[in-house]
Amino acid sequence: MIIGAMHTPPLPEGALRLTDWALIRAQGADAASFLHGQLTQDVTSLGEHQARLAGYCSAKGRLLASLVVFRRGADEFLLSCSADLLAPTLKRLSMFVLRAKCKLSDAGAELSSYGLAGASASAWLGEAAPLQVWGAARRGEASVIRLPDALGQPRYLLIQASAATPPELAALSAEAWAWLEVRSGVPRISAATVEQFVPQMVNLELVGGVNFQKGCYPGQEVVARSQYRGTLKRRAMIFDADAPLQAGLEVFHSADPAQPAGMVVNAAARPGGGWTALVEVKLSALDGGSLHAGPTDAPALRPLVLPYALPADAA
């Protein structure tokens, strides 16, 4: 049985420099069309007041990275991804530039990423705080992206010059930000989970990460087939646990302890103790018995409510 959210008020808020996020710059006359042909999202229609979540897939439709994409100028885009995937993602994308007028580079030396959360962050941003999820705005020379909320707590991604003064907000711990990220239900692919999931297995299309009307991209046929042929047998759910969890950890069902029933996508220490994780899992494993991160004598995972609805045939 799914139980309600378990957290100790007040929710974490403040600002944190995101050292585990990285930035790729795509610049040039063909930058939009190049990215459009590589990612699961429509990039050519992306306006300056929008950001979009996207997946970068292998030819087999497996996620190599998840990215937040936004425009910084007529021919310039920034792509935010997990820092441990910066080098391989940049290298692989560069292989396909060919004759396109698009230069890809690491923007991390010039720009820094901050995670902002809570009412104090909204107040500090003022009119630069986007009202809609995946909305984008400018605060001086900085870019502000509205990320999906976590338990009603607003979250923002702030990109500013590395030399600029950090946000004048209370310090937010890396653990607290990671926990809010998990509770938002938005997957972030890291080195531990590369090529483990088709986008729908981690609910990427439910949080705005896949456009099914756009043209081709690597793995597009597999992603489309997963969407339109029959019901999906795996989804991502949020769980609490009393034992430490980490991305890439396999999850087992009590009825079949020899075969993995899922995998941890993202995990974080829970304020007040314990752990919370976004876990990709077989839907059949939710019908009875118990799930465990590791051997079945490990503490059982306790399911929580997702912040968005699953399709009716997967609920």
Structure explained in plain terms:
The protein is an alpha+beta fold and 315 residues long. It has 2 domains: 14-172, Gyrase A, domain 2 (2-Layer Sandwich); 191-303, Elongation Factor Tu (Ef-tu), domain 3, CATH 2.40.30.160. It has helices at 31-36, 86-95, 119-125, 174-184, 220-228, and strands at residues 14-17, 21-27, 51-57, 63-73, 76-82, 103-106, 111-117, 136-139, 142-150, 153-161, 234-241, 250-253, 256-269, 275-282, 291-292, 302-303. The strands form 3 sheets. A 6-stranded antiparallel β-sheet has the order 15-12-13-14-11-16. A 5-stranded antiparallel β-sheet has the order 1-7-10-9-8. The chain is globular and about 55 Å long. It starts with 13 loop residues before the first strand and ends in a 12-residue tail after the last strand. The model is unreliable at 3-7 (pLDDT under 50).
Write the layout of secondary structure elements.
Layout: E1 14-17, E2 21-27, H1 31-36, E3 51-57, E4 63-73, E5 76-82, H2 86-95, E6 103-106, E7 111-117, H3 119-125, E8 136-139, E9 142-150, E10 153-161, H4 174-184, H5 220-228, E11 234-241, E12 250-253, E13 256-269, E14 275-282, E15 291-292, E16 302-303
Antiparallel strand pairs: 1-7, 2-5, 2-6, 3-4, 4-5, 7-10, 8-9, 9-10, 11-14, 11-16, 12-13, 12-15, 13-14
